[in-house]
Amino acid sequence: MKHVVVTGAAGFLGSHLVKSLIDQGHQVTGIDNLSTGVSKNLQEVANSPLFFFREADVTLPDSLDFLVDQPVDEVYHLASPASPKFYQADSIGTIWVNTRGTYHLLELARTKGAKFLFSSTSEAYGDPEVHPQPESYRGNVNTWGPRACYDEAKRLGEVFCYEYYTKHSVPVKVARIFNTYSSGLRNDDGRVISNFVTQALTGQDITVYGDGSQTRSFCYVDDNIRGLQQLMAVDSANGEIINIGNPTEYSVLEVARLVKELTQSDSNLVFLPLPEDDPKVRRPVIDKAREILNWEPEIGLEEGLKLTIGHYRAMLQETP
Predict the structure, then answer these.
(1) Which of 76, 87, 103, 150 is the catalytic position?
(2) Could you list the pLDDT tens digit for every one of the 320 residues in the chain?
(3) Residues contacting 79, CB < 8 A, separation 6+
């Protein structure tokens, strides 16, 4: 049995990862400051003897002191707002958790001799001029705009990982995560899938930004979590940056129409101005994931949307 530390444990990806690790019989310490994470996400495991939760802010120097006498085998650093709605609302906090917080977690991994996984993002590629995006592409990121607090903080987090790998031999792995979805996304999250499904099920207008021609690649959460765990497990991935995402590309308008069809919704499609620096295309090259991790996604968009819609519909029916 391993002792695994997961930051951002009450968030979307973090809570799914925690549940998967506990199902596999591992001891898990979850850390979250609950700024965007939700305690309800951890209800299923709250009473498990394998789970311990600590409400803490990993940007603070003493936030990890409670682990000083405990062995730690693996550290998944997932803490960070990931939706533009939330990271732009707390831009400075987003910078700190991906830089100062990353430093604190890397120090923990170094002192404990633990493996370390940093959840970076496809946003590291910015508004890409290379399509699709391989890990070797260095990106096209605007440092002077509303998305920079997230994009550039993640890129600097990757630099911290590089330094700890090259100077301290910490077994670091970096996952550049592309759009991930399922019912676990907050329905007020503001991202494409959560927006479209919630709007369609509640009869609101389905809001498409721009003309909807911008593209995204959507990975169902179960595939993503399997990819992250495989990345952590494979020693040949040490010191590697690897894309984790689904390489099948859809326009945002295609997704809106598919959600409308699958929900049998009468909602109207309405078009709003495209946000500043919103990427026009987004699609991962996953050759490294296939070769090094023996991983690729298995759940297609329509299947994943049907699962997501079913869960959201049940959740909305339970809401008073």
Answers:
(1) 150
(2) 999 999 999 999 999 999 999 999 999 999 999 999 999 999 999 999 999 999 999 999 999 999 999 999 999 999 999 888 889 999 999 999 999 999 999 999 999 999 999 999 999 999 999 999 999 999 999 999 999 999 999 999 999 999 999 999 999 999 999 999 987 666 565 678 988 999 999 999 999 999 999 999 999 999 999 999 999 999 999 999 999 999 999 999 999 999 999 999 999 999 999 888 788 999 999 999 999 999 999 999 999 999 999 988 988 887 65
(3) 7, 8, 11, 14, 31, 32, 33, 58, 97, 101
**In-domain check, residue 186:** no
Same structural domain, 196 and 144: no
* 176 shares a domain with 106: yes
**76 counts as catalytic:** no
Q: Are 223 and 297 in contact (CB under 8 A)?
A: yes
pTM: 0.94
Report yes or no on 86 lying in a domain: yes
Q: Give the separation between CA 182 and CA 219, rounded to whole angstroms.
A: 9
Strand locations in the chain (E): 3-7, 27-32, 51-55, 74-77, 115-121, 172-177, 180-181, 206-209, 215-217, 219-220, 240-244, 249-251, 269-272
Q: To the nearest 5 percent, what fractions of the chain are helix, strand and coil? A: 45, 20, 40
Q: Are residues 253 and 114 in the same domain?
A: no
| CATH number for position 24 | 3.40.50.720
Residue 94 structural domain: 3-180+220-246+289-293
Single-letter code of the amino acid located at 125: Y
Same domain, 94 and 199: no
> What's the number of domains the chain is made of?
2
